[in-house]
Design goal:
mainly beta, single chain, two-stranded antiparallel ribbon, about 80% strand
């Protein structure tokens, strides 16, 4: 480590070794309403709930401070599980270049403050889909999710999460 890190009341030493574990899961449920559907172009609004589960754990050398004793170190660990449900609203547009080739754009967002909780989410993406048979296709695209969520209540926490990248997927339409 280059500098000390404090997590869950534990201070990890600047000159120590730190092992971290991070896992995130996303669960989304949404509704789409098309206000335009020409058969070639579809556009509309979305509303939904996205729930993000973050599991974070650190293990390493921690600083031990006792009165009258030089700072020592020992092995220590801390972990936190955070569940952040965030409602979203958004928009989408799909354009059929041909019957088998579709371009998709979407963006969902929300900024919300309720009691001790605050959250902001921006989720956007672009993809190209090719249907090799009537109901099944493959897709390739890019997406980005940017989240800030915080609880300032009795058990405070704050999450800043920003992830982007390329996606490849199989899709089915029925």
């Amino acid at each position: 480590l280059q500098e000390e890190i404090e997590f869950q009341g534990v201070t990890y030493r600047a000159d120590g070794i730190l092992e971290s574990k991070y896992k995130t899961s996303t669960f989304s449920l949404g509704y789409r309403y098309s206000f335009v559907n020409t058969g070639r172009t579809e556009a509309g609004f979305t509303a939904g709930l996205s729930t993000y589960a973050f599991d974070i754990a650190l293990d390493g050398e921690i600083a031990v401070t006792q009165p009258g004793v030089r700072q020592a170190s020992e092995s220590g660990s801390a972990a936190e599980d955070i569940l952040a449900p965030l409602p979203t609203v958004g928009m989408f547009i799909n354009y059929g270049v041909t019957k088998k080739f579709i371009v998709r754009l979407h963006a969902a967002f929300l900024n919300l403050d309720i009691d001790n909780y605050s959250g902001r989410v921006v989720d956007s993406g672009f993809s190209l889909e090719y249907y090799f048979i009537r109901n099944f296709g493959i897709g390739f695209g890019a997406s980005r999710t940017d989240i800030e969520a915080a609880n300032t209540g009795d058990d405070p926490w704050k999450v800043n999460y920003d992830q982007g990248g390329l996606t490849f997927y199989i899709t089915g339409v029925f």
